Amino acid sequence: MKHIVLLLFLILPITGRTQPLYFPPIASSQWDTVNQASMPWCWSCLDTVSSFLASKNTKGFLILKDGKIAYERYYGTFTKDSIWYWASAGKTLTSMLIGIAQEKGLLSITHKTSQYLGQGWTSLTPQQEDSITIRHQLTMTTGLNDAVPDDDCTADTCLIYRAPAGSRWAYHNGPYLLLQSVLDSCSPLTLAQLTNQWIKLRIGMAGAWFDGTYYSRLRDFARFGLLNLAKGVWNGQSILGDTSYFRQATTPSQSINRSYGYLWWLNGQPSHMLPTTQLIFQGPMIPNAPMDLIAALGKNDQKIYIVPSMNIVVVRMGESAGQPAFALSSFDNELWGLLRLVFQPQVSTQTIPADLQSIVMQRNGDGSWMHKLPESWLNQKIDLFNVSGQKVKSMLIEKLSWNQTDWQLQPGFYLIKSEHGIGKLFLP
């Protein structure tokens, strides 16, 4: 029975008890923190998360639980007052502004874009151009050719016909940027003024637009994530009151890429697509993450992850984590492989002897890592599981010191199961 319980620990879904949301004060730097004693998380596992983040060029990382700060770390010279760009994670800010503009009667997403930008905003025929609506821009289904030299170009000569509007999904920045021009055209206020009046001042978020990209501090990034966790309501005040629009924005917007809403990325769908390709990949985009996760994903791994079932917001700012990408990268699944261990209900410490948790890592002269095991491990049979709960190796411990090449394991986080309990192992 003990073995069954321990194995279930490896594969149980992430669970979390939700509470009413806390909202930090608007005109204050105060932000309440989580009482760790009241949360059955693996708080020590966050040390591994932090080591992973540091190795992935992270500048700032923050977890909100029920709106309160559960974990906050900064790396290198980056501080809580440092400014960084949202990249394409800021597309979701534009999505909310479009929703508010529609709620105020300034536009309709079913209207043709040329109604706001004028005829000839593309190089298409008038009939082709008039078939493109604001909703097509929100869903990346304009049919415009994304295989152009400059993906950010918004000139008519860069906006070329490829397919009928609504028939093809392609991650294309030019048509997205023109949504900001739509907002400028439907109101006497500038994009910056709309953002300030409709969102920033009402939730206490600082930051600014520059050349179509939003810049802010990490905590401002998290405030916007919290606003969306609350479905557009901040401390009882509706910022985006159109609940139908918010629901449409955070559910599949078309049948081509079901993992895309109105500029939001959606986990838990039967298939997904990625920028720069027309391939359809089966399964959810982040298998290690909760299936109800929605995400704002930006170039070089700027991330807002929102998990409604757990009342959790996770944000990350930094340089590329290793594989530069416009949105989804391998970093997403690797990070959530570690976070799911943090958020898992924990096994009683009585089933995890102290010596099964004590793996000493020492750096060799050549920069590689040497791992020294406790003496009680000698001649024990162990099983190793990866973060997805899959067994990757079984072996008999015949020596107490070993290099990663001895076990032929990829860097990452592993759980070790023996007849005495479970141990944790991180390979840098």
Q: Strands, helices and their partners?
A:
Blueprint lengths: L1 H10 L33 H11 L2 E8 L2 E7 L9 E2 L5 H13 L10 H4 L8 H5 L3 H6 L33 H14 L4 H13 L4 E3 L2 E4 L1 H12 L3 E2 L2 E2 L4 H7 L15 E2 L4 E2 L8 E2 L11 E5 L3 E6 L4 E7 L11 H14 L16 E4 L5 E4 L8 E5 L5 E6 L4 E3 H4 L4 E7 L2 E7 L1
Antiparallel strand pairs: 1-2, 1-13, 3-5, 4-5, 6-7, 8-11, 9-10, 11-12, 12-13, 14-15, 15-18, 16-17, 16-19, 19-20
Helix pairs in contact: 2-11, 3-7
Radius of gyration over C-alpha positions, nearest whole angstrom: 24 Å
Tell me, what is the CATH class of the largest domain?
Answer: Alpha Beta
What percent strand? Answer: 15-25%
Identify the CATH architecture of the largest domain.
Answer: 3-Layer(aba) Sandwich
CATH superfamily of the largest domain, by name, is DD-peptidase/beta-lactamase superfamily
Count the E strands: 20
Low-confidence stretches: 1-17, 346-357
The spatial strand order of the largest sheet comes to: 2-1-13-12-11-8
- Main sheet record: 6 strands, antiparallel
Q: In one word, what is the shape?
A: globular
CATH level-3 fold name of the largest domain = Beta-lactamase
Helical fraction equals 25-40%
Mean pLDDT: 87
Q: Helix- and strand-based class?
A: alpha+beta
Q: What is the count of DSSP helices, taking H or I runs of 4+ residues?
A: 12
The tally of domains stands at 3
End-to-end CA span: 33 Å
